[in-house]
Amino acid sequence: MELIFLGTGSNNLSPHRGASSLALHLSNYLHGDHLFGLPGFLCTLSSSVLPSPVTIYGPLGIREFIETTLRLSHSWLSFKYEIIELIPNSYDGVDENLIKTTLEKQQKDERCRTVTINEDGRYHLTNDEDNCSIYAVSIKHRVPTYGYIIDESDLPGKFDIQKLQQSGIKPGPFCSRLKAGETVTLDDGRVLSPLDYVGPSRPGRRLVILGDCCDASNVIPFAQNCDVLVHECTHDNTLKEKAIDFGHSTPSMATSLAEQCHAKCLLLNHFSQRYKPKSLENKENVVKKTKKEESNTGEKGEDEDDEEVTVDLLLEQAKQSTKIPVFIADDFFTYTMDTDGTLPFVVNLPPIDRFEPTTVVGKLEPNQRQINLVVIVLRIQANPQKTREGHEIHSFKIADRTGSVTLNVWNTAGQLISPGDILRLQNCITQVFKNELCVKPGRSGTVTKIGEFMMDFKEEPDMSIFTPTMESAMINTNKRPAQLMS
């Protein structure tokens, strides 16, 4: 499961951030920065062939906005869609005329439906048959606003691929059926029962995604032990009064809610323009330094004393008030959760459609850089090795359809990888370590789990085995022979 932050700014766009948006689109409230892009997005979808209708959830009034915009712009959608509006409750304030108009429209058009608040204080939006239940809860902003709680259905038990291999059976496409609870008969007549290879079912994950707010306490009873809490963080703690006046939050307000929800992870987004991404800090400091060196007048440069404030200030303030893992979500930040309750992979990636494998395992050589691969994990090679500094090196045998190789991953990230995982390796490097060719993320590389089991692969050739060709490649790249025995 992935959360991709398409934009992480506040109400206005800036050169550094787009307006707040997630790949999962649930409209929180009717302000322009959360609304204006929706008709264009629907028109873009209309140019594609969609196998099923589109359902739009949002506050009361979203139907009128969408249909008026499409009508006035002479835009027609090629797919069926349904609009489900949330009727405001006493916490939100009630526009009786708007409710009356909406209910009249609902009687005439089957695409338009409304949802009212349940006795427990939630709006129930989807059913368990969709493998998850989605609820909306009122939170406090300047207009009726909602946070969304996504409860995943229970997950199948963890598949023990090592036990399968110990039985002399190579993994294959049948593994997905076995994991789904089916009894599988192999070509040689052996019958495999899921009870022998699949563990007990695991509780589904819970995501809480909040929009703009200065008080989201209504979600606390329904967000307990959530795996992820996405909370806005428009201003730092010194501007708390200003934040509340405009219906927004600070790091201490976000961490307070996370603590009360017993959240396992807190993701901060929706930053004021004053807080620039950390990635720009070094670049802009270089520009300033260059301007200063070019000026020989002795006068102070225009920007010389400007103090650049980055999102690191918000992150530091958040970490001071909680032990919960906290991350800053810049644009295209990707948060990937595993299904076994372990810590997630957290990476900053470009949009997924920019990722393309640059090579295959069968063509790997020593000292290559910026390698992109898609591979499957066959097995854990051995117990983790320790470096002199105390870091753990986890080794795995990975493969694609052209061969296999060793993957080395350090520390916590290595603890998350299991046999059968399908991984996306980006900007990785190769090196010879203890007479074996291996792939590793290095400082700038990333490892992301994107699936399980369903991938064609070959174990031969094993590219990790050291050959004279590798030695020649190392000599040609001016690597010292001593490194072969490191």
Layout of secondary structure:
Elements: E1 2-7, E2 21-22, H1 37-46, E3 54-59, H2 62-72, E4 81-86, H3 96-108, E5 112-115, E6 123-124, E7 132-139, E8 145-152, H4 161-166, H5 174-179, E9 184-185, E10 191-192, H6 194-197, E11 206-209, E12 228-232, H7 240-245, H8 251-261, E13 266-269, H9 281-294, H10 312-320, E14 326-328, E15 333-336, E16 345-348, E17 371-380, E18 385-386, E19 392-400, E20 403-410, H11 411-415, E21 421-433, E22 436-440, E23 446-452, H12 468-476
Parallel strand pairs: 3-4, 4-5, 11-12, 12-13, 13-14, 20-22
Antiparallel strand pairs: 1-2, 1-15, 6-7, 7-8, 8-11, 9-10, 15-16, 17-19, 17-21, 18-19, 19-20, 21-22, 21-23
Comma- or semicolon-separated keywords:
486 residues; alpha+beta; seven-stranded mixed sheet; 21% helix; disordered C terminus
If you had to describe this structure to a student in words, what would you say it looks like?
The protein is α+β, with helices and mostly antiparallel strands and 486 residues long. Helix content is 21%, strand content 26%. The strands form 5 sheets. The protein has a 7-stranded mixed sheet with strand order 6-7-8-11-12-13-14, covered by helices on one side. It has a 5-stranded mixed barrel with strand order 17-19-20-22-21. Helix 8 crosses helix 10. The C terminus is likely disordered.
